[in-house]
User: Fold this.
Amino acid sequence: MPFPTVEITLPAWMDDALTDRNHPYPTVADRMALVIELARRNVESETGGPFGAGIFELQSGRLVAPGVNMVIPGNCSVAHAEITAIMVAQKIMGTFDLGEEGLPPMELVSSTEPCAMCLGAVVWSGVRRLVCGGRDEDARGIGFDEGPKPSNWTVALEKRGIAVLRDVARRDAVAVLKHYVDRGGWVYNARQSAAP
Amino acid sequence: MPFPTVEITLPAWMDDALTDRNHPYPTVADRMALVIELARRNVESETGGPFGAGIFELQSGRLVAPGVNMVIPGNCSVAHAEITAIMVAQKIMGTFDLGEEGLPPMELVSSTEPCAMCLGAVVWSGVRRLVCGGRDEDARGIGFDEGPKPSNWTVALEKRGIAVLRDVARRDAVAVLKHYVDRGGWVYNARQSAAP
Assistant:
């Protein structure tokens, strides 16, 4: 029997939620509002964890690809919101490097600061800016481990030509995290967390 | 038009290379020899970068899933060897958590120490041990950036219940890295590296 193909498919509600693919997201606040809404809808639809993300063209604000956490329904610990947005965007653009010459500069907007895995993925993706809503400590606050991240992670990104913008609509992002827990959402993999 | 499904399919040669799916890998040296051979074959076949990995049952040494770097041909910056092995293993086992109760303990064997992204992915995967061949500095030595990893990353894994074994057949792993460069293999994304 051959090894299986792994398929990453965004939740069915995503195409309904984004019917107008030319909808403009001119400001950072607009972009963050969208990814927080995707996180909220992901929780409501029980299609994954309380995290949303999107790859946008930095100047125009055009949405290239959305992403949501699909770890539990997808049977895939890699399927964080940032990772799915990056993978779908690269599939659409036909390149492993969103910073490729000839493409408009792109950014990743994430409802919560990236975990250790997604932090690395940001570097390899080719995006030129990372915009974050909730902070690491907000994710940890509801029991998610953010993993082995260097404390100076924003500097590490900036050194690699990736600007970082934090605390955009942080309160709204945190509200979705809390909503997930209030609904009894499963904080998976928490058993492996280090003692604080 | 709906957002596309992202598909991760191991190279066609993989099923030929592993026809005997019950082949035993009793020792750590056996397991490392296999993943280094997969890395070498990946280079020879021009199906990706010089990195191989595998998820094994820790006690029996049964291979659950192999992985190789497929970044360039797959148009996917996330498709590192460790990530593909984890995703395929979780697909086969039908769970996002390879450390789930009822499953035998598993380990990830990687031809080179994980980059920042894969380090985080190891934590979320549920494996109980990480076995490495080449070191970070060996990957950097041929121009690959390992990304923003904390300097005490082995401690960070051990704190989360994941043992780390390093320098297994390091020289053989490094030989594949050198072979890739000698053949003119593309050291992608190097432009974003920080100055040393």
